[in-house]
Amino acid sequence: MPPTEPELTVVDVTDSSMRIGVLSTYPPTQCGLATYTRALVDGIAEVRGGIDGIGVVRVVDRIDDIPDDDPPEVVGAAIPGGPGWELAADVLSTFDVVSVQHEYGIYGPDDGEAVVDMLKRISAPVVTTLHTVQDGPTSHRLALLRQISELSDAVCVTSESARRRLLSDFGLDSSKVFVVPHGAHLFAPVTPPDDRPRILTWGLIRPGKGIEWMILGMKRLRDLQPPPLYVVAGVTHPHTVDAEGESYRRYLEGLVHRADLGDVVEFRDEYLDDAALARLVGEAKVVVIPYDTTDQVSSGVLIEAVGAAKPVVATDFPHAREMLASGAGMIVPHAEPAALADAVGRLLTDPAAYAEASAAARRLSTHLSWPQIGRRFLDVLETVRRRAAEDSAHLSVAEESSIHQP
Predict the structure, then answer these.
(1) Over 70: is that where the pLDDT of 191 sits?
(2) Most exposed residue of 5, 131, 226, 371, measured as fewest CB within 10 angstroms of its CB?
């Protein structure tokens, strides 16, 4: 059993004097980290009564990615390891505390080694949120994560599963590891345009999402009355497009065609803004997360689905086990279309089972709104800021004492 989480300093939310720097991708960049960071910043701003005192340094791949009309909270942009990287560190060092949002694919080549250089340069206290904590990472990624932890005053993860892994497998100091769950927008139910139940998978599309397994599972569900509709929504991940174009999407579309499932599978190739996502999730009856991965410890789609009180059918990965343990959905084996279809079919045809799962999701959702998550994140930032101030004061006293030693 891992040690309990360190005690937090509770922030007076009426005091917005703490200046917070943020390093991350940011909309209109199309990636999960950018979406998360914008929602977190909005949640913090709602708690504090405004965006003042929050400054985001945008991480970009190319200068062309910098929009002309950045919102007021964006105070700079930089290419990892490129022009402006040192200046970005100087800008972030002017804040009272800095939040670094970390994914391996964000900070340039070699698994994003440029983030280590950034952490060495920032003089303000740093809280790094680790969005990927792998089971059995490469030796390079393991070394990189340990460097990031050592150079950060604290690290955050979005699930208990991730925290347990950091402590047991990576050997991180338990006093530095906090859990701040991924937030949810709490989408309200929406009446669909017809009586067909919607089964939904959404997010950036790429290999490993397991969408093919649910497509094949629709063969077992198409004879239900009324026949359900499986909606796959989202654009292909930009990094996937750069590496292999639209080959995965074409493969999925070909699978639908060959299996003659065009009447029960619908693709929506669009990047969903908040309004479009709210409608899509609101219309859904069941959310399916058929990922191939067995070690994912954080899923924003899972949290958003539970936040909307939607029953979830997910493959067996750690964050799904953690979130659905209370009955908010069903766990099935990986790469088994029949198991996915049977679980979805039960929820669609058994009103009692559906009501029980929906009620369990609704109970969880009461703790997942972005303002609540923003409030908890503020507590972590203030705890780290005060720790750093106390450590600095103790160091000053020790240095002063050593000067006056005979």
Answers:
(1) yes
(2) 226
How far apart are alpha carbons 286 and 94 in whole angstroms?
Answer: 46
In this predicted structure, the answer to whether residue 403 has a pLDDT above a threshold of 70 is: no
Specify the 3-state DSSP secondary structure of 241. Answer: helix
Q: How many residues does the chain have?
A: 406
Closest CA to 112 of 136, 87, 131, 91: 131
| Closest of 124, 110, 299, 116 to residue 202, by C-alpha | 299
Provide the CATH number for the domain around residue 113. Answer: 3.40.50.2000
Same domain, 242 and 174: no
Half-sphere exposure of 382 (CA within 13 A, CB side): 18
DSSP 358-379: HHHHHHHHTT-BHHHHHHHHHH
Evaluate whether 201 touches 213 at the Cβ level (below 8 Å). Answer: no
* 54 and 153 assigned to the same domain: yes
Q: How far is CA 374 from CA 183, 187, 221, 370, 381, in A?
A: 8, 18, 40, 6, 10
Whether 167 and 128 share a structural domain? yes
Q: Do both 62 and 128 map to the same domain?
A: yes
> 210 — alpha (psi -120 to 50), left (phi > 0) or beta?
left
Structure pTM? Answer: 0.90
Residue burial 34-54, b: 16+ Cβ < 10 Å; e: rest: bbbbbbbbbbbbbbbeebebb
Please state the φ and ψ torsions of residue 317, each to the nearest 5 degrees: -125, 160
pLDDT recorded at residue 399: 56
CB-side exposure of 94: number of CA atoms within 13 Å? 11
pLDDT tens column, 331-376: 999 999 999 999 999 999 999 999 999 999 999 999 999 999 999 9
The verdict on residue 233 lying in a domain is yes
E strands in 66-197: 74-78, 97-102, 126-130, 154-157, 177-179
Reference 228, options 239, 241, 238, 219; nearest CA is 219
Residue 200 has pLDDT above 90, yes or no: yes
pLDDT of residue 321: 97
**Residue 3, pLDDT score:** 64
In a domain, 402, yes or no: no
Print the domain residue range for 63: 20-183+371-396
Span 75-128, pLDDT tens digits: 999 999 998 899 999 999 999 999 999 999 899 999 999 999 999 999 999 999
Angle between helices 300-307 and 351-365 (to 10 degrees): 110
